[in-house]
Amino acid sequence: NFIGRSFTPILPLHLGVLGVAPDRLASATGALIAAYSLAAATSAWYLGRLSRTRPPRGLLLITLVGGAATVAPMALVPSYEMILGLAVLLGLVSGGSLTLCYTIGGLMVPETVRTTAFGFFSGAALSPFVWNSLDELSVRETGYRVPMLTGLGATETAPFFMSVNPHTSRSGHVGLPVLGNDAKLVPNNGKLEVRAKGPNVMP
After folding, report:
1. What share of the chain has pLDDT > 90, as a percent?
2. Weakest mean pLDDT among 15-29, 98-112, 156-170
3. Do 14 and 28 touch, CB atoms closer than 8 A?
4. Among 22, 61, 83, 138, which residue's Cβ finds the most Cβ atoms within 10 Å?
């Protein structure tokens, strides 16, 4: 997760060095990120299922070692196609590591009191259809609605500056500024841009 978030902002610069034409940088970057994300989602699904029959700590060690071995050559490859292949491989090898961490954390809680307390997602909003489907699934499986926390932020706001509480959380709602933060809506190119101010915002 840290590697993916750290590498993404400089990816277009690196692809330019590899010879990708300036008018293709945006689409090449998007294709690479999409390919990695699909591979990582596949890895998370597969490793989640595999952790039911295999020790998750051992699987996590394999994903971490495999991820490190895959990331190392990325700085040395001479072409876009090779870095695309390594990105897919990285997603497949280490994309499920966060899933394994959650599994390990869940196993540390005694089974008699183990349950899902809340959900968290990031990167994009959930559509009302997906949100309502998750609500229906949680009620069917647990007997109650599992609260999902939403907010607005970025890496530079460490990690968010607006958030909802479990009672006001719904699709399309990002909440109010958290304690110590201010938000301001500013017109920008015919739209409203939200600006953040607080001790957690990077200068």
Report:
1. 39
2. 98-112
3. no
4. 83
Which tens digits make up the pLDDT trace of 105-124?
777 767 765 665 555 666 67
Q: Which residues pair with 182 in a beta bridge?
A: 197
Overall average pLDDT of the 86-95 stretch? 91
CA atoms within 13 A on the CB side of 187: 2
This model's pTM is above 0.85 = no
What is the distance between the alpha carbons of residues 176 and 162, in angstroms, rounded to a whole number? 5
Q: What is the number of other CB atoms lying within 10 angstroms of the CB of residue 90?
A: 25
CB 63 within 8 A of CB 55: no
Could you give the maximum distance between any two Cα atoms of the chain, in Å?
A: 58
Measuring CA to CA, how many Å separate 124 from each of 154, 178, 195?
A: 12, 20, 18
Helix-helix angle 56-71:97-107, to 10 degrees: 160
Neighbours of 156 (CB within 10 A): 12
34-56 per-position pLDDT tens digit = 999 899 999 999 998 898 899 99
For 166, the 3-state DSSP assignment is: coil
Could you give the CA distance from residue 50 to residue 106 in angstroms, rounded to a whole number?
Answer: 15
Residue type, 33: I
